[in-house]
Amino acid sequence: MPGVHAYLMAKLLTDQEFQRFSELQQKQASFTISSGEADELRDIVARAQQKRDDRANAMKTVETAIAQFEITPDELFTAEQIAEAARNFGLIPATRKERVLPPSLTFNGKTHQWTTRALPEEIRMPLFEAFQGGQSVKAFIATPKDAARCAATIARLEKETGAQYAADWLEELAVTRAQVDDALAKIAA
Fold this sequence. Notes:
The protein is mainly alpha-helical. The chain is built from 9 helices and 2 strands, in the order αααααββαααα. It has helices at residues 2-12, 15-29, 35-68, 73-76, 79-88, 121-132, 147-161, 167-172, 177-188, and strands at 104-107, 110-113.
């Protein structure tokens, strides 16, 4: 496995050292290496082996400390880093689907999920009237602190009514025009 050996050596040596190692190895293979160059090659290999041993000892020290203090992965890495590693090793699918819950609306004490089906008329009429009348619809939104769902709600209302929600009302929901436009693009896709 010369490829694996070269990869490991490349990891343990600087670029210059690895380049010189490769040159000397080629000379050795073609029997054109001088005794001074053979000594140089042995020195390079010895440095690489020392670095490998030092790395192995460092890893053992880290592993021992992790075990001794019962350090968990979430203390060492962010959730994003853990997920990225899991994707890289094929433990979870490579593409991450952004999952945004559908808009959740409330009216007269009843909560409605606004899925692909139309809203019941009992909420649809007052909601659309308020929206088209330029009024705030915050009172209808069951999850006003969830910016993604608020943006999805406004995007859906804009798409279905053809009206655009006022910037002041977007600010009231702590939602930007860009978030609404992004949600509109997702609806279209």
